[in-house]
Amino acid sequence: MLRVKQFRNYPFLELAPSPGITVLYGPNGSGKTNLLEAMHLLSLGRSHRTPTDREMIAQGEMSAVIHGQTIRSDGKHDIEVRLFQQEKPQKKVLLYGKPAQRIADMMGHATVVMFSPEDIRIVRDGPAARRRFVDMQLSQIRPGYLQVLRTYLTVLENRNTLLKQDKLGMVSDFSAELDIWDEQLAAAAAPLVKNRRWFLDQLSKTAAEEYASIAENPGEPFALEYVGPLAKADDPIARMLDGLRRSRDEDRRRQHTTFGPHRDDIALMLYGRDLRAMGSQGQLRTAVLSMKLGEIRLIQDEMGEPPALLLDDVFSELDVKRRSALLRSTQGIQTLITCTDRQDAADARADQFLRVSEGADGAAKVEAE
Ligand SMILES: Nc1ncnc2c1ncn2[C@@H]1O[C@H](COP(=O)(O)OP(=O)(O)O)[C@@H](O)[C@H]1O
Ligand SMILES: [Mg+2]
Question: Which residues have a beta carbon within 5 Å of ligand 2, which is an ion?
Fold first, then answer.
């Protein structure tokens, strides 16, 4: 069950998607992606398309409410996110009606894997896009991960602040203070790297199997490789301390930390070569799709039940083979599919068709057939 208030172009909406496949169809700009975005927000604490939470509050309103209930093998889960235009914090999370201590606590109550045309940015954009992919997926599977990441980023920020203050001549015992941050940053980096390493090892296996089933040439060996200063370190803490010490002069000059897992990346390898450098468009698309399909299997394996699938406008871009690989993965899984034309999802064997439209007043409407 999904209920939203003053969310994007929905003044109010309550929706109970089928446990099977639901198709949401309607013209461009009517509010289809907005609904998937609301579900993504409930699962991962953030939108899949904007880092600015306030953007999701309906124009002219001061707050938005997004409330969802999911039924999982261990019972009913109840999650609510409230967004505020001016209050601090601008985002509040409630679990079973009670304020959550931390945003991280909401992880794992509802899991989703979203497929959208923007997925290609995982290969097209810089390392930050790939780190975001890893961090978001990992925090769903390992609810404690988000806290690990936040701790690292907080210490990193403190270290960077010290480097800036040093430049302004505000620090009396710079080396001693930096030593303290180095210790803390190394301690925070170790669990971060351990989690990412584990995740990429697992995802590499499942994604490779998916890739092999879609690829033009059967058996093309696809793999994900963790790239980063500590990616292969036996002792990440020692390696981190060493790296920080070596880059200290440069960090001091540049006033920020140049060494560490905040610069991690993933390499997408085919036949042992980096796909991003030499892959065709088709291979890159297959790689991204395989990573997402692999993610479904990984969530299923780790959490004992599959995620909900959100397929946003993806069919029009896929060829027959990729499309059928995607549809195969929806079997027995709660899935929401958006498309402009009802016909686009004809082969999805949907249980429910919902028509989305935007009224003259700009408010979105969802009607069952
Ligand atoms: N904060 C907001 N307040 C009101 N309307 C919004 C807001 N953000 C986006 N919209 C409206 O939502 C619509 C786009 O919705 P979207 O779900 O992306 O469309 P689509 O059906 O093409 O996926 C547009 O009409 C846009 O004006
Ligand atoms: Mg859309």
Answer: 33
